[in-house]
Design goal:
single chain; alpha+beta; PH-domain like; 7-stranded antiparallel beta sheet; 25% helix; globular; disordered N terminus; PI-Interact_SigTrans_Reg; PH domain-containing protein; PH-like_dom_sf; PH_domain
C-alpha cells in the first residue's frame, strides 16, 4: 500500500526505528520531488514532512514491505545520482538519497526486510500444512 489512508498498524514508529533518514520522494500524482523524513520499522516504511517524529505525528504515507517485490538502484532510469526504486505488484516508487552510502544503506535495509518478510510468510505457510 502506498500513501493515502495511512494505517500505522500499531507500529510505534517514533521509537527505535530500524532505519530513518532524509530522502527525496517523487509524488504519486504530481511528479515533483519532495524531501521527506523516512522511518522503517516492523515491516513498514513511513514518511513525514519533518524529522521531529513523535507519538502524535501523522505519517504522510506508508509502504508495507510485505507487498514489496524488489529494491534496486535507479540512477540510470531516472538519470539522477543516488536514486533507487522500491517495487510492488502495482507500483514503483522512486527515491533519491543524499549520497551513495545512504542509497546503499537504504537498499540493503529494505532488501533485508523484504527477505525477512518473505521468509516469515513461508514459515507461516509451512505451519498451516
Amino acid at each position: 500500500m502506498f500513501g493515502a489512508a495511512v494505517q500505522t498498524g500499531g507500529v510505534e514508529f517514533w521509537e527505535a526505528p530500524e532505519r530513518s533518514g532524509w530522502l527525496m520522494k517523487q509524488g504519486a500524482i504530481i511528479k515533483t520531488w519532495r524531501r521527506r523524513w523516512f522511518v522503517m520499522k516492523q515491516g513498514k516504511i513511513f514518511w513525514f514532512k519533518s524529522d521531529d517524529v513523535n507519538s502524535k505525528s501523522v505519517p504522510r504515507g506508508v509502504v508495507e514491505i510485505k507487498g514489496c517485490l524488489s529494491v534496486k538502484g535507479a540512477e540510470e532510469m531516472l538519470n539522477k545520482p543516488y536514486a533507487f526504486e522500491v517495487s510492488t505488484r502495482d507500483k514503483t516508487m522512486y527515491f533519491i538519497a543524499d549520497n551513495d552510502r545512504e542509497k546503499e544503506d537504504w537498499i540493503n535495509a529494505v532488501g533485508r526486510a523484504i527477505v525477512k518478510q518473505s521468509s516469515s510468510m513461508q514459515d507461516n505457510e509451512v505451519m498451516n500444512y
